[in-house]
Write a structure and sequence with these properties.
Elements lengths: L14 H9 L5 H5 L5 E3 L15 E9 L4 E5 L2 E10 L2 E8 L4 H4 L5 E11 L2 E10 L1 H9 L2 E3 L8 H14 L9 H6 L5 H9 L4 H30 L12 H9 L6 H15 L5 E6 L6 H13 L3 E6 L2 H18 L5 E4 L5 H13 L4 E5 H5 L7 E6 L7 H8 L6 E6 L5 H7 L4 E5 L10 E5 L4 H13 L3 E5 L14 H11 L6 E4 L5 H12 L5 E4 L12 E6 L7 H8 L10 E5 L5 H12 L3 H12 L24 H17 L9 H9 L7
Parallel strand pairs: 5-7, 9-14, 9-15, 10-12, 10-13, 11-12, 13-14, 16-21, 17-19, 17-20, 18-19, 20-21
Antiparallel strand pairs: 1-8, 2-4, 2-6, 3-4, 4-5, 6-7
Bound molecules: adenosine-5'-diphosphate and magnesium ion (MG).
Magnesium ion binds next to loops.
């Protein structure tokens, strides 16, 4: 058996299991071994009872049982309770329907209890705890149990068992890095790492295994990037073009002057468009720095030269907004260009008609969501392709777009929520233009972090802004009430708000589960100023531009990642009026407070990303994937940035010693290079 063998060949894996595994994307043994645990259960050392705070959550306590457990009838359940004490205090333990415990737990004996703390008023109790002898718990603390992402009919046990079986059946596992690299960076051998990531005996071992696998992931990604870059260096410019006077006039007619950085970026784009090589550029700039207009200048340049262009946006709402912007600019300046909108919500017949028009070249500038662009859209002569909010797309999607035409110029735009130095690594195959300064007329956003008890004051403030003719967003983390998660939801919140606010305040709501047409309608109402407050989920996180909105209020702010909060805040402060961002947080945790304070004191996306990195520390074992920037399987470019830099150094070292990868030990990489045809088979 080898990695490519189907899991069906494994002992104990029947047809049914094969099907279930398939729904998890597991077909071969390689898929199976690459199905890493998403977490590990580990048992922490016990805490003193007196130290338990007001937060609910899982803990272990150690102590003596002072009296025989009491059993009483509570509704249809038998409730067993007993008090456990240590030197610092005592705590009530509760079990449901386990009356036999009354006879098992011995008075005067010492046990460890692991369970959930429940707080009711001033009373704390440990609910349904597991019971251990000191020796048994000692053993538990050592081991880490893998926890896999599951689906119906697939248990954690089944996955773990099948993976164990695979390790037994495999003759050998290949090593993918040469000794020069594993030695230099102190990496454990690949086969060992792969086993340990599933079945670690302790944390240190897990840390080492994870580091090895993360390094490998980054290494091959960066190598592919390098291969891609070399390839791009040879792609000639099939669509050389320059802006004509219509485009230059358009720039003059803008209601503002481009900032210095915008001008520089525009110069970069112009040089690329007329240069000898095809453009492959990233335009980076914080939220609200004015990237859209530069994309449009490129599109207009293409249209003037008789070519087509496309802008791909991550959401329908944003695509529609871009489309409206383009249409109004075309109309205002009397430009002879034809724009078309192509999104999933178009009725099938309209979609087909639009696709035909695009194929015939009747549309110059196409704006759409990526799903639609990827579907069978044929262009007549696509010369300029833009991806907006690139960090919302994977690398693969970016490639899909650039392969649409013969070889269109590619511009990707992003307010990359990662530190600049990391961005340079991750987008190593692209040339980069940065917009660091905000348009001149901007007034910095005022921030505040408040507890839920201050909500009424916030509402009064909102009302004052609305009376002054401004608009406000309120963000809730959820669409509807949920049994699993606590937090505000858009549906109930909107209802409540309608009761609290005077009747003449117009309140609308928006969330991802609404029909696309309705979403567009609500967004249009808000854009046009016919709604005063928009209660929304994070669907409005990216790109939305309504300069008259001046208040962003975020409920359960502690639930969101810092970069996401920064993106949300970027929806205000886009016009000439002072803007405000209110973070509402119920959490009293020190860490949460500190995180929100970062936002409170900075409006600079890059700085926020750096601070976030410092606060979390690069060694974070189970790095929270809050950045959502690139979907690595294990690695987190922010939390694992140190490993990323090492991998980069290794790739550079390899290529400087052996540029064409001719050496024997580098042969595996040479093949990899050859296959790197723009498909990122990582
Ligand atoms: P982002 O970079 O986040 O995509 P947008 O392109 O949406 O930002 O621009 C934000 C707002 O700033 C828009 O309303 C746009 O019209 C305006 N804007 C862009 N450039 C300038 C400028 N140089 N001066 C003033 N306002 C500008
Ligand atoms: Mg934008």
């Amino acid at each position: 058996m080898n990695l490519k063998t189907s899991v069906q060949q494994l002992k104990g894996v029947g047809e049914k299991t094969v099907q279930k595994f398939a729904s998890l994307g597991i077909g071969t043994i390689e898929d199976l071994l690459g199905y890493y645990p998403r977490d590990y259960i580990c048992y922490e050392p016990p805490v003193s009872i007196g130290m338990i705070g007001e937060e609910e959550g899982f803990v272990t306590v150690a102590g003596y049982i002072r009296s025989r457990p009491a059993v009483r009838q509570g509704g249809r359940m038998k409730i067993t309770s007993v008090t456990v004490s240590d030197e610092t205090g005592s705590l009530q333990l509760i079990w449901f329907n386990m009356p036999f415990l009354a006879n098992t737990l011995r008075t005067g004996s010492r046990y460890l209890f692991h369970g959930r703390i429940q707080v009711q008023g001033s009373r704390k109790s440990l609910v349904q705890p597991e019971i251990y002898t000191p020796a048994a718990y000692e053993e538990k603390m050592q081991a880490l149990q893998p926890m896999y992402a599951l689906t119906k009919g697939v248990t954690n046990h089944l996955i773990a068992k099948t993976i164990k079986q695979a390790f037994v059946s495999l003759e050998s596992l290949p090593e993918s890095l040469p000794p020069s690299i594993t030695g230099r960076y102190g990496l454990m051998p690949a086969p060992e790492a792969l086993y340990i990531i599933h079945f670690p005996r302790n944390r240190e071992e897990l840390r080492q295994a994870r580091k090895r696998l993360v390094f490998e992931e980054f290494f091959f990604f960066l190598l592919a990037m390098e291969a891609h870059k070399r390839e791009l260096d040879h792609v000639e410019n099939v669509f050389p073009m320059e802006p004509d006077e219509k485009v230059m006039k358009f720039i003059e007619s803008l209601p503002y002057e481009l900032t210095e950085d915008q001008k520089k970026a525009w110069q970069d784009i112009r040089n690329d468009l007329k240069g000898s090589r095809c453009m492959h550029r990233m335009l980076q700039g914080d939220v609200g720095s004015g990237k859209t207009v530069l994309a449009l200048l490129g599109c207009f340049t293409a249209a003037s030269s008789g070519y087509q262009s496309v802008i791909m946006a991550p959401t329908e709402v944003l695509a529609k907004q871009h489309y409206d912007t383009v249409q109004s600019m075309i109309a205002a300046c009397g430009l002879p260009y034809r724009a078309g909108l192509l999104t999933g919500s178009l009725p099938a017949a309209n979609k087909r008609r639009m696709q035909e028009s695009i194929a015939l070249g009747l549309v110059d500038i196409v704006i759409g969501t990526h799903a639609v662009i990827q579907e069978a859209v044929e262009f007549k002569n696509l010369a300029f392709a833009v991806t907006d909010e690139q960090h919302r797309f994977g690398v693969k999607q970016r490639e899909a777009l650039s392969q649409k035409g013969v070889r269109p110029h590619v511009l990707v735009m992003s307010a990359t929520p990662i530190p600049r130095t990391l961005a340079l690594l991750i987008y190593g195959d692209l040339d980069i233009s940065m917009i660091r300064q905000m348009p001149k007329n901007r007034i910095p956003i005022k921030n505040c972090v408040i507890g839920q008890d201050k909500r009424d004051t916030a509402y009064q403030f909102l009302q004052k802004e609305i009376r002054a003719g401004r608009q406000a967003y309120i963000i809730c983390p959820m669409v509807e009430e949920s049994e699993l998660l606590e937090g505000e939801n858009v549906t109930d919140y909107t209802k409540r708000l309608c009761e609290i606010f005077p009747k003449d305040v117009r309140i609308g709501m928006l969330h991802g589960r609404m029909k696309p047409a309705l979403k567009n309608q609500v967004m249009e109402e808000f854009s046009a100023g016919r709604l005063d407050i928009l209660v929304s989920t994070t669907v409005i996180e990216v790109g939305i531009d309504v300069p008259n909105a001046t208040v962003m209020m975020i409920e359960n702010a502690d639930r969101f990642g810092l970069s996401q909060l920064h993106q949300l805040r970027g929806r205000v402060g886009r016009g000439k009026n002072a803007s405000y961002c209110i973070f509402v947080s119920g959490s009293k945790k020190q860490e949460t407070r500190e995180r929100l304070e970062i936002l409170n004191h900075s409006n600079d996306g890059f700085e926020i990303a750096e601070k976030d990195l410092q606060l979390r520390g690069p060694g974070d074992l189970f790095g929270i994937r809050q950045s959502g920037v690139l979907e690595f399987r294990l690695g987190d470019i922010v939390a694992d940035s140190k490993v990323l830099y090492e991998a980069k150094e290794a790739v550079d070292g390899l290529l400087s010693e052996d540029p064409d990868l001719k050496k024997r030990e580098n042969r595996i990489f040479a093949n990899f290079f050859k296959n790197a045809d723009g498909n990122w088979n990582l």
